From TrEMBL:
GO terms for cellular component: nucleus. This is Xrn1 N-terminal domain-containing protein. It comes from the Eukaryota. GO terms for molecular function: 5'-3' RNA exonuclease activity; RNA binding. GO terms for biological process: nuclear-transcribed mRNA catabolic process. InterPro entries: 5_3_exoribonuclease, Xrn1_N. Residues 1-203 form the Xrn1 N-terminal domain.
Length: 208
């Protein structure tokens, strides 16, 4: 949810981080309206990953930052070439555009962005449950933020497996709906051996 809400591939990008937090909460609202969970809503954000995954993430983020620098250098060279050919540019506007570029690498456990996002989501949950809406008041909401180690989908799977150990409350016909774009969700869902498990995901259009 966080990546498409903070830097969408289609449509205008948010103007500030506060708008990104609002987009995340609106997206959760949209998913709840679509699925209408009756017992529990589990919101999980990726926490600190295991060592091997951490090395992969670090190399991916370094590569992403390097690609941004290379693209910026290429744009600067093209601007200089156009200026030499006599094209006119609004220098103040171009400077403002460059300084306003947002670094998506802040979507990492331990950053101020993730801390503020967790605080915003907690406030959103409290606001919903104290709004007087009987639907939200009857819903059990679990929020696992980035301070809790482990990837979000694995936190959810751990909870589902733990439910099987609760013989008094376990319902074998419980319906689970998991939202996410990761391909490993299919294998994780099959590994639970739950009878009713659905994966909700958006249509991904490649090449944009």
């Amino acid at each position: 949810i966080i990546h498409p809400c903070s830097h969408p591939e289609v449509g205008p990008a948010p103007t500030c981080e506060e708008e990104m937090y609002e987009n995340v909460c609106l997206y959760v609202d949209r998913l709840v309206c679509a699925v209408r969970p009756r017992r529990m809503l589990y919101l999980a954000i990726d926490g600190v990953a295991p060592r091997a995954k951490m090395n992969q993430q670090r190399s991916r983020r370094f590569r992403s930052a390097q690609e941004v620098r290379e693209l910026q250098s290429l744009q600067d060279d093209m601007e200089q070439d156009l200026i030499r050919e006599g094209c006119q540019f609004d220098a103040e506007k171009m400077k403002k555009k460059k300084s306003g570029q947002w670094d998506s690498n802040v979507i990492t456990p331990g950053t101020k962005f993730m801390l503020k996002l967790s605080q915003h989501v907690r406030f959103y949950i409290r606001q919903k449950q104290s709004s007087g809406d009987p639907y939200w008041q009857s819903l059990l909401i679990v929020f696992s933020d980035a301070s809790i180690p482990g990837e979000g989908e694995h936190k959810i799977m751990t909870h589902i497996r733990h439910q099987r150990t609760c013989k008094d409350t376990f319902n074998p016909n419980m319906v689970h709906v998991l939202h996410g774009l990761d391909a490993d969700l299919i294998m994780l869902a099959l590994a639970t051996h739950e009878a009713h498990f659905y994966i909700l995901r958006e249509k991904v259009v490649f090449g944009r």
